[in-house]
Structure formats: structure tokens, C-alpha cells
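This protein record is not my work; I was only asked to verify it. Would you go through it and say whether the fold makes sense for this chain? Here is the record exactly as it was handed to me.
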Amino acid sequence: MNIAIQSKSGIPIYEQITKQMRDAITAGELKAGEPLPSIRSLAADLGISVITTKRAYEDLEKEGMVYSVPGKGFFVDNPDLGFLAEKQTLGLEEALAKWVGDARKAGLSKEEALDMLEILYD
């Protein structure tokens, strides 16, 4: 598992870890039943607090992405990928709606906004 932390991003480190692990699980990079690095080893590898890593794992557990086995650690759960994809699509729709509103405020026409989106998408 390769996690990249950006300390100057303004996004809390535990959220960065949670998002990257969630993305890896939904993309199938991490399979159901696969063990995650221990809280201590991940914290040491990233040079962060054990508390921060624990928070990320707990958040993933609340989402049903991972589960813990006392004395053994955390493992990838078998999440409902259809539900997660729908949730991700909803988040994208919300972000896109905000972007469209910002584009309108900036005075972009629909054609200009679509051109920009096509350029960025490619």
C-alpha cells in the first residue's frame, strides 16, 4: 500500500489516509480479507502519529470498508461496491453543480464551460 501524505494541502492527514485507502478498496487494489499495515507500522512509515493512523482506520471501519480482529489487526472488508460507486457519483454531482455555479458567476457561457471541461477531462 503506497500512501502519499501532503502536509501543506489543508486536508487533515487522517482524511488523506482514509480517502486513499477507500479509493484503493473500491478500485480493487486492496481485496477483501487482505490485511492492512498495522497502525504502528503505517504511522512509522508515514512519520505521523499513531493516533492519526488509528483515526483513519476507525473511520474506514465505520464506513464498512475494513474490519478489525482483536490481536490481529485490520482487514479489508467486502463492501457493497455498487453503493460506494453511487455514493461517489453523488459526490461528483455535487462538486460539478458547484463548479457550474462558479462558472456561471464567472460569466462563462455553456459552450465555454463545456470546452473547459472537455480540455480538463482529456
User: Anything to note?
Assistant: Residues 13-76 form a domain with the Arc Repressor Mutant, subunit A fold (CATH 1.10.10.10). The radius of gyration is 18 Å. The longest strand covers residues 66-69. The longest helix spans residues 81-105.
